[in-house]
Structure formats: C-alpha cells, structure tokens
Write a structure and sequence with these properties.
This is Protein-arginine kinase. The protein is an alpha+beta fold and 354 residues long. The protein contains 12 helices and 10 strands. Helices cover 47% and strands 15% of the residues.
Amino acid sequence: MTLQNFMNEAISPWMREEGPDSDIVLSSRIRLARNFANVSYPIIADKDKLEEIRDFFRDNYENQSFEEYKDFAFVAIGDLSPVEKRVLVEKHLISPHLAENAEIAAALISENEQVSLMVNEEDHIRIQLYLPGFQLENALQKAFTFDDFLEEKVNYAFDETRGYLTSCPTNVGTGMRASVMMHLPALAMTKQINRMIPAINQLGLVVRGIYGEGSEAIGSIFQISNQITLGKTEEDIVEDLQSVVKQLIDHERKARSRIMEQSRTSLEDRIFRSYGVLEYSRVIESKEAAVCLSNVRLGIDLGFIENVSRNILNELMILTQPGFLQQYAKRTLTANERDVLRASLIRERLQLEK
C-alpha cells in the first residue's frame, strides 16, 4: 500500500459498507492514547528520542498485517506536501495536530483505512479504529485486540491507580475517546439540537463538528464523544455514550416523521432545490455544498430521491474539501477556483448515479 492509494479515493473502503442505523449514524470510532514507559511525552521529549519511536514503528510494522487489517503503510508526515497532509486530515486518517508535528510525526494506515496509528502526536501513540454505522461495542473490542497486538512489543506507561498515563490529564485513565458521527438534519431544521447539546454536555459528553475539537457542525453532521476517561471503565464509557446516541437516533427519526406529516411539501421542495443546486451549479462554496448534500442525503433516506447512493454524502463531503480539490487538480487553487472545481466534481458525480 502506498501513499497515493490514500490520496486517490475520497471515500475509504470501509465507508462503502452499511452498518446498523447507518441512515443516521455514519461511523463509530474508538481512539486510544498510549505512551512508552519511561520516555518523555512528545511535547517535551528530545527530537532524537522521538525519531527513535518513529523509526521503531517503521521497522516493526511497515507492510505488516494483523487480522483483517492488511498491509500497513508507513507515512512519514515530514515527507508530505501541505496538500497531502490536508487530504489525510480531511479523510480523518490523521489529526490536524499530527500534521503540525510534521518533523517527527508518522502514521501507520491499514489498507482498508479502518485503522490508523498516529506516532508522536500529543502522545507517542494514538490508535484510531473506525466501523460503519452504530457499532461502538464492536469497535471497542476490535480496538482492544489491536491494542494487545501492539503491547506485545511496546511497554506502555501505566499506573495501577491512575490507569494509562497520557500527555493531557483529561485522557488519563482509559486513554480512550469513543465517538460517533451522526447526520441529524431534522433535529437541526427544528432547532431541537440546540436544546439537546447543553443536556448532553452535562452527561460528560461533548458535541463537536465533523473534524472534532474546534470544528463547525456543517451539513448537520455532529460528532458525539466522551469527555471523561478517568474513574470509569471503557465499557462504562461506551455504554453511557450508546445510551445518548440511541436517544438521539430516536429523536431524529421522530423529528423526520413530524416534518413529513406537517410540512411534506416544504420538505420536498427543500430537498429537490438542493439537488438542483448540486446538479446545475457552476460555482459553489463549501458551506453551501455541505448544506445541499445534507438535504439530498435526507431525501435519499426518506425515499424522495431514488437511484442515488447513500454514500454520496460521505464521498462528496470529503471530495469537495480544499485539500482534496487541490490534490485532484495537482496544483494550488484560489478560493474561486476551488468553488468552480467543487461544482464540477459534484455535477460529474451525480451524473454517474444516473
């Protein structure tokens, strides 16, 4: 597996699969933060020591496979162009923080892009494992198995009382962030999500945008994750998150039904106007594209729009991002050039569905 494989396709192979409740839950993710015992954290460690850690993962895991995760590609972040780094961030294969730590950072990415391991981010190791749809428990067990696989060669920094030791105190304990990516257009349309977010925060969970901390919830896509990692087991954290997600799924479905009953014509008009904008626009900004794509995805889920894949939202939300557009064009683009190319690619993709 080469870097170019990750650059060529907007949608990761695992994202083409259907999962439970995938009309609302786009993906489930488990992220585990780990550090080497008796080695300073990346924020204060010597460059030579961090290079040793980076080289350790290259020497031991490059081109290796584990269970269904095949042919791990080793990517030295410092060797990437700014556009290549941005594409990997847009595909959620690395974090913005890892991209900034380019000189000593690296990533190991499985062939199906379901597992990525970030090296020398905020911690020495950040394991990410994704599954389509609402599969938190399954994702947790798979992440545990992969974590055990790494621990065969890595002596983790662990304290019997505090748990896994991490660079940031908010990750001490399990070192785990569990999250789901949800498409909640009906709750956004009815403004119910605005009332729900404060209540969710009070439960020790956090609601963010599509790219995590500090990002905006564009296209009615929200990321729900745990904030507490200390004092609870991984299973308890996942159970709490699952309980809230199930309620959100229920509220979203009820909101869709109410809109269908009370404002069906207006809803259809909104959906098909968005489809028309995507199909015929010659220039479109990223936020407008995200809103229209969200409406079209809702139209697909409700059966208004047929013969268009549900995966179109996942694919075009990434394909139309600035990094991917410039990767596609093979050059740096101005904002207006990106808007023109974005419209062109959306039209082209919709034509393929017909």
